[in-house]
Design brief:
heterodimer, A: alpha+beta, Thrombin, subunit H, 2 domains, six-stranded antiparallel β-barrel, six-stranded antiparallel beta barrel, 4 helices, 36% helix, globular, B: mainly alpha, Arp2/3 complex 21 kDa subunit ARPC3, 8 helices
């Protein structure tokens, strides 16, 4: 027996490792609650200070570049004469940036007030590690009351939902990810369907052929499914295709959120009474 | 112990570059997989047990920051390592350019393995269009980064000892 094991040691070893890895993966697939394991929490906690620090440092560098270096380059000829002017413009640049941030946050606050929801603001710190999936990391975690499954929104509409939490970080599965599906309806005629991610956009599925859906129709959350509250904007219909045969029509939806510019988000903690 | 700690720190550094630094410099949704390059390299230079465990660990590390199900990249990286290791005896591992070729094909294999796993275990029929859209640019990007890795690692030592075996000092366990 031992001779046999020794002889096929490599094959045995490789098989054991593959089976163990497969077992771990399938076990994680089946887990419905507390999906963030100890290893994930540990790595996230180790990486958190570096990620937050890098974001702050890069913002600083970007600030210096925009407020000083760029101005030096564009007005190099009049540098001495415009010294005072440059200082003022530098301050103006800072104020402009503050104003834009203020506008974004105000929009988020207005949105929160409109929805009458208890929401927690958070900042996006990193993207998904691969080009395959659409997730982002935010700078608030379980210490701030965030739990897996909570919806994440911005002023323009739904952004995604929480899939992993660490004490000071959480990972958000964006609605454009291929594994994301949301119960939705067409705002104009209340046609129901499921919005699935396709990497860059969304598709509105299970819309019957005879349903009246037109380009430009607004798609909102239906409130079914227990994750997203009813009435949150998802996107706009940009293409409708009805084939001669088949039960359903193909409907393409452009998300209302610009995911390439996602900076601040709101995590909906719970609905206000 | 020092080597294990070194490998742990190196893996975190590469992950940090991959997750936080490079996305700011590259176009949207185009990211190199630096950990995959390490897996390909491990397949050429390490034994079955250590290389396999390290590849699994690197996959698990990527799982923390990618996708929605923990373990997917773990098994993918382990399978890629086993594939490279199986063929390693047939390659001339003294040729540093082999890493470039491996970076390209390992990315392709990663796409196929990930799709197969998602198809078998999860509802991922929609992942295919995304795969077709991304796999070639990512494979080329990974090859480019493998080239950068070859250029950045200590050249003098590489010249003295020759080939990939010399690079093993830089990423040694």
């Amino acid at each position: 027996m031992f001779d046999l094991l020794r002889k096929y040691r490599t094959v045995f070893l490789a098989t054991v490792m593959v089976l163990a890895a497969l077992l771990l993966y399938s076990q994680n697939l089946r887990r419905a609650e507390e999906r963030t394991n100890l290893f994930e929490r540990l790595i996230l906690q180790i990486m958190a200070p570096a990620q937050t620090g890098l974001k702050a440092a890069l913002d600083q560098i970007a600030g210096i570049w925009e407020r000083y270096l760029w101005l030096v380059e564009t007005e190099a000829d009049n540098l001495l004469l415009r010294e005072e002017n440059r200082q003022l413009r530098s301050e103006l640049g800072t104020l402009q940036e503050l104003r834009l941030t203020n506008d974004r946050l105000r929009k988020l606050l207005d949105f929160r007030d409109q929805q009458a929801l208890t929401a927690l603001p958070a900042q996006v710190i990193t993207e998904d590690a691969t080009s395959w999936f659409r997730t982002v990391m935010i700078d608030k975690g379980s210490d701030a009351g965030i739990r897996e499954g909570m919806p994440v929104v911005v002023a323009e509409g739904v952004a995604g939902r929480i899939i992993r939490t660490a004490p000071n970080q959480a990972r958000v599965l964006l609605i454009t990810d291929a594994s994301s599906a949301i119960a939705t309806l067409i705002q104009r005629n209340r046609s129901r369907g499921v919005c699935r991610g396709s990497g860059t956009g969304l598709s509105f599925e299970f819309a019957l052929r005879e349903e009246d859906i037109e380009v430009g129709d607004q798609v909102i959350t239906s409130g079914n499914g227990g994750v997203f509250p009813k009435g949150l904007p998802i996107g706009t219909v940009v293409r409708v295709e009805r084939e001669e045969y088949g039960m359903f029509q193909q409907v393409e939806v452009a998300p209302s959120v610009d995911f390439s510019r996602l900076e601040e988000v709101l995590v909906l903690l719970e609905e206000s009474p | 112990m020092k080597r294990v700690a070194g490998f742990f720190l190196l893996s975190l550094l590469l992950l940090f570059l991959q997750v936080a630094v490079l996305p700011r410099l590259l176009p949207d949704h185009l990211k190199p997989d630096l950990l995959l390059l390490v897996v390909a390299y491990l397949g050429l230079t390490r034994d079955w047990l250590r290389g396999g465990l390290c590849s699994w660990y690197l996959g698990a590390l990527e799982d923390v920051f990618a996708g929605s199900d923990f373990g997917l990249f773990g098994i993918t990286f382990l399978l890629i390592f086993l594939l490279v290791k199986t063929g390693a005896g047939r390659f001339n591992t003294e040729n540093p350019l082999l890493l470039l070729l491996l970076a390209f094909f390992a990315t392709m294999v990663k796409g196929v393995v990930l799709s197969a796993l998602l198809l078998l275990f999860a509802d991922a029929g929609r992942q295919w269009p995304l795969l077709l859209h991304i796999i070639l640019p990512e494979a080329l990007l990974n090859t480019l980064f493998a080239l950068l890795l070859l250029c950045c690692l200590p050249r003098r030592r590489a010249e003295r000892r020759g080939g990939l075996s010399s690079l093993s000092r830089g990423l040694s366990l």
